[in-house]
Amino acid sequence: xxPLLHNIVSELLTRIDNAIDGELYxxxxxxxxxxxxxxxxxxxxxxxxxxxxxxxxxGISDARLIExxxxxxxxxxxxMSIVFEDGACALGIGDYRSIESMKSSVLxxxxxxxxxxxxxxxx
Length: 123
Description:
It is a single chain. By secondary structure, this protein is mostly beta strands. The protein has two helices and nine strands; from the N terminus they run βαββββββαββ. It has helices at 9-15, 99-102; strands spanning 2-3, 23-31, 34-43, 49-58, 62-64, 80-85, 88-93, 108-111, 113-119. The strands form two sheets. A five-stranded antiparallel beta sheet has the order 1-9-4-3-2, with no helix packed on it. The chain has a four-stranded antiparallel beta sheet with strand order 5-8-7-6, with no helix packed on it.
C-alpha cells in the first residue's frame, strides 16, 4: 500500500471520479484501530475500466460503519470524500469538505493516516 498524502488526494479522487456511481465492496476491521475500505470504481487512467481500490485507515479515532450485507445498497451517486484536517484524515461516503460535516455520512472513518492500493476488479 502507498501512503496517501494530502497533496495527492485531489489527483487520485479525480482519477477515480470521486468513486461516483462506484460500489462499496468491503469494510474490513484489521484491528480495533485499523480498517480497510474497498470500493469498485472506474479508473480514468485505464480508459474508465473498473478496478477495485482499497483504503487502509490507521489510528481510528471515530467511525460510523454498516453491516456487510448493506454495503451494496449504499447510494454512491455523490461518490466519496477524503479530508485531511488538523493532523487527522477521514474517508466518507458522499461529498464533504470537513471532518465534522462527514459525520452525517452513512459511512465514515476518521484516523491518523491513510494508505491506498489498486486491486483487480471484483464483482
